[in-house]
Amino acid sequence: MSLNVNTEPLRFVAVGDSFTEGVGDRDLRLPNDCRGWADRVAEELFRNDPRTRYANLAVRGRRLHRILDEQLDTALAMEPNLISFHAGGNDLLAARLDLGALIRRFEASVARIAGTGTRVLLFTEYNVPLSPVLEPLKLRTAVFNKHIRRIAADYGTLLVDHWCFEHFQDRRMWAPDRLHMSTPGHEYMAVKVLEVLGAAHSLRTPVLGPPQQRSRAEIIADDAAWLRRDVAPWFSRRLRGVSSGDHLGARWPALMPAVLPERLGTSKAPVPPGG
Question: 227 Cβ partners below 8 Å, 6+ apart?
Fold first, then answer.
C-alpha cells in the first residue's frame, strides 16, 4: 500500500512510547531533546508534498493503558489518514504480565483505529540485546510479535517487522542504555518505514563500517557502567512507580508541517499550542 500524494493531503499522527518519541536520537534543538524515526519520516513526506501534516503524541515510558488513555482519543480527533501505533514494549519488561490480556487489549486498539478507515502502521518488537540475564524476555517478545503479525494480517494494516532486521544486531544501532535505538538506528528505521509506506525519499541506510573489536576487560567495564548508569535508575523508578516520561508531554501535540532540520540552525524549535 503506497501513499498517493496527488489526492488527499496526508495527516500523519504517531502514537506510542519512547520508540516513537525518538529517545536515543539526541537533538537539543527539538522538544524533549530528541528527533527519531517518526520526525525523519515526516520530514521526507513533507518534502514530497508540503501539504503533509504531522503530530507526534508519543511519550517515553508509557505502557499500553496510558497510551490508550492519553493519546488515542486525541489522535483520532485529528482525523488522520495515517496512524503509527507502537505500544506494549514497556509492558513486556514488567516483572508480572498477563500476556493474553495485553494482546487482547492491543488488538482491540488496532480494531478501533482501523474501524475509522485510517491506514494503520504497526511494528513488531525487537529482541533488544540487554543482558543474558534477561534472555527469558525473548520468548515473551516472540509470542507478542506472533500476534502482532496476525493482527496486522486480520485488519489489513501496514507492518514494519522490526524483529527481522539484522542490522540491529550491531550494538552501534543502540544507544548506550541498550534499550533505545541510537541515531543510526532511528535513521535505518525511518528508511524501513518509508519503504513500507511506498514513499519516495532521499534517506540512505547508515554505513557503520566494520565493528570494533573489544577486549574482555572492555566488555566488563562497559557492562558495569551500564548497570550503574542505566539499570539501577530504571529499577529505582520501577520500585517507586514512576516513569522517565512522567513530567514530559507530547513533542508535537498538534498537526503541523514537519520541522525541517536545515531550517532550525542552532535555535530551539517551538512547541505548537496544545503541548
Answer: none
Q: In DSSP terms, which residues pair with 11 in a beta bridge?
A: 53
Predicted confidence (pLDDT) per residue in 139-180, tens digit: 899 999 999 999 999 999 999 999 989 888 888 998 888 789
Q: Which residues, other chains included, contact 138 with Cβ-Cβ below 8 Å and sequence gap of 6+?
A: 127
The set of residues, in sequence order, having a beta carbon less than 8 Å from that of 164 and lying 6+ positions away, is 124
Task: Look at residues 139, 132, 72 and name the one whose alpha carbon lies nearest to residue 99.
Answer: 139
Give the tens place of pLDDT for each residue, 198-239.
Answer: 999 999 999 888 877 888 887 777 777 767 776 666 666 766
For 102-170, give the DSSP string: HHHHHHHHHHHHHHTT-EEEEEPPP-----GGGTTHHHHHHHHHHHHHHHHHHHT-EEE-GGG-GGGGS
Tell me the DSSP string of 187-223: HHHHHHHHHHHT-----------SPPP--HHHHHHHH
CA gap 109, 121 in Å, rounded: 13
pTM value is 0.88
Angle, alpha carbons 183-110-75 (nearest 5°): 65
Q: CB-hemisphere CA count at 13 Å for 247?
A: 1
Neighbours of 261 (CB within 10 A): 15
Which residue, 38, 34, 68, is CA-closest to 55? 38
Task: Please write the tens of the pLDDT for every residue from 14-69.
Answer: 999 999 999 999 999 999 999 999 999 999 999 999 999 999 999 999 999 999 99
Length of the chain: 275
Residues 6 or more apart whose CB falls under 8 angstroms from that of 197 comprise: 1, 2, 3, 41, 82, 121, 158
- DSSP designation for 231: I
Residues 6+ positions from 111 with CB-CB distance below 8 Å: 155
Flag whether pLDDT at 5 surpasses 50. Answer: no
